[in-house]
Amino acid sequence: MSDLYKKVSEARTGLEKLLGQIPGYKGYKEKEMRRESDKLLRQAVVTRMSAQRRRMKELQRRLISAGRIEYLDDLGVAITQLQTFIDRVRRATYGYSGLFDAVRVREEELDRLYDFDHRLLEYGDRLSAALDTLEVAIPSGEGLADALRAVQSICGEANDTFSMREEVILGVSQTTE
Q1: pLDDT at res. 5
Q2: Is residue 177 one of the residues assigned to a domain?
Q3: Is residue 147 part of a domain?
Q4: Rg, C-alpha atoms of the chain
């Protein structure tokens, strides 16, 4: 598991530790801690990607200042894709079913979900690097179209990857032929 899960686990109160000795409570509480860890992780993804979105808006202004108006729509499409991704991550279920829900989620599934969500952080790093390239290309215009395509590609890929999240929750394996 991760550092977030460890931090959430260590933050338990004395009462929670005492309750952990009650049969059945420990497993329930561990699921809750995994669920909380995933929620915190997804909040981190949203925060990181929101910062990249703000940066993209600033780069849009730089495109205008540099007289590169013909590229505004391309960057606008990427911003919309990124906002869609951010909204999806923000509203995603926490991967834990309540006591009477139809779908039960076990600890292993929560761990897979956490690992999946953790990989979403990589999109923030990739997007930041692509935006660095875009920023450098704006003044001269050299490589600008390629830089914009890379930004759009990362934003689209992030959404496509997130679409597979439900399969992870349900434990559905995807086969590529």
Answers
A1: 53
A2: no
A3: yes
A4: 20
Q: How far apart (Å, rounded) are the C-alpha atoms in residues 85 and 130?
A: 17
For residues 105-121, give the mean pLDDT.
Answer: 77
Residue linked to tokens 């989620």: 105
Whole-number Å distance between alpha carbons of 95 and 1 = 15
The predicted-structure confidence for 145-167, as pLDDT tens digits, reads as follows 999 999 999 999 999 999 888 77
Q: Which residue carries 């890379």 as its tokens?
A: 150
Statement: the pTM of the whole predicted model exceeds 0.85: no
What total number of domains does the chain contain? 1
Range of the domain at 18: 3-170
Q: Give the CA angle between residues 160, 89, 78 to the nearest 5°.
A: 55
Whether 175 maps to a domain, the answer reads no
pLDDT tens by residue, 65-100: 999 999 999 999 999 999 999 999 998 876 544 433
* Percent of the chain surpassing pLDDT 90: 51
Q: How far apart are the first and last CA of the chain?
A: 31
Q: In 3D, which of 33, 26, 37 has the Cα closest to residue 2?
A: 37
Say if CB 19 and CB 84 are below 8 A apart: no
Query: CA-to-CA distance for 62 and 56, rounded, in angstroms?
Result: 10
In one letter, which amino acid is 148? L
d(CA 67, CA 89) in angstroms, rounded, equals 34
